[in-house]
Amino acid sequence: MRGRILPIKAAAVLVAIVACGLAAPALAQKPVKIGVLTPLSPPGDASAGQFIVRGAKMAADDVNARGGVLGGRKIELVTEDDSGTPEKGVAGFRKLATLDQVVAVVGQFHSSVMGAVQELAEQFKIPVFATQASARSITEKHLTYTFRTHVIDPDRVSLWNRWIKQHDFKRVALIAENTDYGVGLVEETKRLFKSMDVQADLKTVIFDRAVVDLTPQLLEIKNWKPDLVLNGGVGTPVYLVIKQAHDVGLFPAVPMLVSYDLPARPEFWKNLGDKGAYLTFIVYYHPTMKLTSRGEAFRAKYREQFKEDPVYGALNAYAQVALVADALNDAKSDTGEALVKALLSNTFEGWNGTISFSHGEGPYWQQWTPPMLFLQYTDPKMPFGEAKIVFPPQFKTGDLLMAPKR
Amino acid sequence: MDAYLFSQYLLSGIVIGLIYSLMALGITFIYSIMKMINWAMGEFYMIGSYVQYAVLVTLLPPERWYLALPLAMGSVFLLGVVTQRLLLRPMYVGGIERRDEYATIITIALMVFFRNLAIVLGGPNQYAPKDYARATTLGTLPISGNRVVALVAAIVLLTLFSLMVKQTWLGRAFRGAAQNRVGIQTAGIDVLRLDMLAFGVGVALAAAAGALLAPDFLVYPENGAISTFKGFEIIVIGGLGSIPGSVVGGVLLGVIEALGSVFIASAYKDLYGFVLLIALLVLRPTGLFGERERTV
């Protein structure tokens, strides 16, 4: 009996060894998954999410064309829609972490969503990147797995305060949505008005993000007689504020500054027609900028593929996926701990400079900041690349123009 | 605050309230006849805005927006008729015992379906047709020309609807169905066909609101959500099933929201309508123009 069992056992061991041998190369080729958690449907800024996905996909393709990461493993992107809402963001992150087992998550756009998912990132030990979420609190919490390669609100507010001082605006109205981003802008502006000694009166109006009729709020602002309006909406509310401010006669009679780069998008003029003329807005990228070799290669490929200039969201998502790939190679591992270690101990080629992360003070924790420029459209249907840079002074290509009286 | 500014806020509230009452009228009309709440009303508003935009960028020049409006209403009417025939009619002929639950499930499923269909077909981005008219002033209020157009169209549609209900044979049939669905069948009226027409007319009113407000409030997959909430608030304030209640409720809601957001805080604009609604539910549960239902 014993004599008959032994050959069977030996055969079983042999089969197991052969099976392991066959499985080993397959395991080695297992792709490395990177999550893209971003708004792809309302109420989130879905247009921003689409640009972010574009950039991330192009980065994954480039990395894979160069042979992948960790000795030949391909990058596989898993895209999830957070709809710009914390609850969907949390559900999406949980799915990416548990079901898809991603090694990192990029694409975060809305600060409220980022604030919710970064707690999960700690729990699952998965690095999460703010691609365009700028609330101060995100990096101020000093979390191990949170990284950002985007501006933070104190810097944004500090810059517009300098602009307000330079132009000697005396009555500034800030209309912002009731999200972490909007409320954060209001609080930062109030705080920095004092600390930067801005000699202007400030009126702040917070509106519900879901509201579509902003006429009462804009009438209230108009009757306060401001000489500058700051538009702190995100996505659809940005358009609603511009359109309705135009209709009640507030803008362009009073200059308006949009707090981020939405007007750089190709659909801007389609949605606003002539009402977008004389608008000033903050951007982080301009087509005349000199980029790194990685950034230049991306820009050329993007122009060829989409027949338009890339927008910042696409550039930043591209750079984030590329830097995660670089960090994976540096770490020689796909674990979260190793990835964080590699992110903190190396420098990476970004789209317009070298990216590095350190444990800075306050919100400058694991934070890298791109440049900020104020642009102005002076004519209807003006291409983004032709918009004049009106601030800061060292990059100026034109002066702020006031709209002729109607 | 001076009287001039007060009149501006008041007017802005009246204008938007009247436009929202179109939506409320659609909800209350469907409820009166079919005794069900259509939770997908905002999506028919959204579809109306999409059809209007699509017609104006493909078939008609932007200045012919007034020809696109009946097309938007007509196509949504047909969609409503088909939806009612295929998905809601079984409530009455299929021996379904819990009709309220059935209607709720079906219309909420429709809401999710239409929103996602809009994302699949048109993407998640915003669109806007060109302005229907130039910005102007209405009394003391500087106002978008689109909103003046929407206001006038809303008044015309409300008047036509009221005339149809009061002066025509079909209107009498609708009123009969609203009072007693079994009773009117003894008069030889096909109540199931009336249901179909009522649903179509109700959603066409929502589509009109969507199409009229498209240049101001934009076209995107979730643009109907807020107007649905307003519509439901209005019918509870005005009284379920009442046409004048829809109009007065709409104006009241618009005014309270406009004044509340200026005098109290604009971040809680949606709250003021709910405060009014709760107060009315406590003091007059049937709404301003609603009547207590007679039971036998």
- Outline of chain B: globular
Please tell me the total number of domains of chain A: 2
Second-tier CATH architecture of the largest domain in chain A: 3-Layer(aba) Sandwich
Structure classification of chain A: alpha/beta
Helix content of chain A: 40-55%
CATH class bucket of chain B = Mainly Alpha
Helix proportion of chain B: over 70%
CATH fold naming of chain B: ABC transporter involved in vitamin B12 uptake, BtuC
Spatial strand order of the main sheet of chain B: 1-2
Descriptors:
heterodimer, A: 406 residues, alpha/beta, Rossmann fold, five-stranded parallel sheet, globular, B: 296 residues, mainly alpha, ABC transporter involved in vitamin B12 uptake, BtuC, two-stranded antiparallel ribbon, 2 strands, 74% helix
Describe this structure in words.
The complex is a heterodimer of chains A (406) and B (296). Chain A is of the alpha/beta class. Chain A has two domains: 32-151 and 292-356, Response regulator (Rossmann fold), CATH 3.40.50.2300; 154-283 and 372-395, Rossmann fold (3-Layer(aba) Sandwich). In chain A, 45% of the residues lie in helices and 16% in strands. Chain A has helices at 2-28, 46-65, 86-98, 111-124, 136-140, 153-167, 180-195, 215-224, 236-247, 268-272, 293-306, 312-331, 336-345; strands at 32-38, 75-81, 104-108, 128-130, 146-148, 171-177, 201-207, 228-232, 256-258, 280-283, 347-349, 354-356, 373-376, 388-391. In chain A, the strands form three sheets. A seven-stranded mixed sheet of chain A has the order 7-6-8-9-10-13-14, with helices on both faces. In chain A, strands 2-1-3-4-5 form a five-stranded parallel sheet, sandwiched between helices. Chain B is mainly alpha-helical and 296 residues long. Chain B has a single domain (3-283), classed as Orthogonal Bundle (ABC transporter involved in vitamin B12 uptake, BtuC), CATH 1.10.3470. Chain B has helices at residues 3-34, 41-58, 65-88, 90-93, 99-122, 145-167, 169-179, 181-185, 191-217, 225-238, 243-263, 269-283, and strands at 136-138, 141-143. In chain B, strand 1 (136-138) and strand 2 (141-143) form a beta hairpin. In chain B, helix 2 (41-58) crosses helix 3 (65-88), helix 2 (41-58) packs parallel to helix 5 and helix 6 crosses helix 7 (169-179). The longest helix of chain B has 32 residues, at 3-34. The N and C termini of chain B lie far apart (54 Å). The mean pLDDT of chain B is 90. Chain A binds chain B through residues 40-43, 46-47, 49-50, 178, 205-208, 210-213, 215-217, 219-220, 223, 235-236, 239-240, 243-244, 246-249, 267, 270-273, and chain B through 5, 8-9, 12-13, 16, 119, 123-128, 130-131, 135, 141-144, 147, 216-218, 220-223, 225-227, 257-259, 261-262, 265-270.
